[in-house]
Design goal:
Layout: E1 2-5, E2 14-17, H1 25-29, H2 35-44, E3 47-57, E4 60-64, E5 67-71, H3 72-81, H4 89-101, E6 106-112, E7 120-121, E8 130-138, E9 160-166, H5 170-182, E10 192-197, E11 199-204, E12 211-213, E13 217-219, E14 223-235
Helix pairs in contact: 3-4
């Protein structure tokens, strides 16, 4: 959660992250892990410009500050929301269920490191939809229960980190998730494509395959993601 604080002297309003959720991934990237940390940051009074991701979809535009997900990751997150009584363990249970389910996730995905460039990858003329496991596009390093899905991500580098995972067998998939939990070394696996981009596109083959934004909003594809450098200020 976030609270906007207006400082005196004509300074720009800035957000402060309040670590009262389950994962608190955005707050943790700012070094705010407890309520005490939050008050220390407010007292220090230092603000910094950070990025956001503009997501253009059939219903309009939505801005993300944390993560945009599709595939197994979005489906598992939606399921986990209905199991809050399990606490943080719900992410593991939902993830295992969807690994075993092995649902088909066909899509075209492309990305570019140039803000005005065309998205390369599987978006070219005549390209076909491929069966992927999932896709993450993140401003933060972690998602869910503090797992390092995008270990190189920074809040202010003018890029977002894209993690696209190809479909694999059950045991291989479980092994990749173990690497996510331990140290983020899954990004070194040949089944994982990890790039830092300024723009990307995703077009799911099935209209029922939805895209999740910051764990709060769900939209239909196709979606186009574009980085918005220094979109707002936050206390650090």
């Amino acid at each position: 959660d976030a609270v906007t604080i207006h400082r005196g002297g004509g300074c720009t309003a800035a957000d402060i992250r309040v670590p009262v959720g389950t994962g608190n991934n955005y707050a943790c990237d700012l070094g705010i892990r407890t309520i005490e940390d939050m008050f220390v940051v407010i007292d220090r009074g230092v603000v910094h410009a950070v990025d956001a991701i503009k997501v253009t979809h059939p219903e309009g535009e939505t801005y993300s500050i944390n993560v945009v997900v599709w595939g197994l990751a979005r489906d598992a997150a939606e399921m986990a929301e209905g199991m809050r009584w399990l606490g943080p363990l719900r992410y593991d249970v939902a993830g295992l269920y969807h690994i075993l389910l092995n649902k088909l996730n066909f899509a075209k995905i492309g990305a570019t490191q140039a803000s005005d460039g065309e998205c390369s990858g599987g978006m070219g003329p005549g390209s076909e939809h491929e069966d992927f496991m999932m896709m993450f596009a993140q401003n933060t390093r972690c998602s869910g229960r503090g797992y390092q899905f995008a270990p190189l991500a920074k809040l202010d580098d003018g890029k977002f980190d894209v993690v696209v995972v190809k479909k694999a067998g059950i045991f291989k998939t479980m092994g990749l998730f173990d690497k996510v939990k331990v140290d983020g070394s899954h990004v070194e696996d040949p089944l994982v494509c990890y790039i830092q981009a300024k723009k990307m596109k995703l077009e799911a083959k099935e209209s029922t395959d939805l895209v999740g934004i910051d764990g709060e909003i769900v939209v239909k594809s196709p979606v186009t993601l574009e980085i918005c450098p220094k979109a707002f200020h936050t206390f650090v």
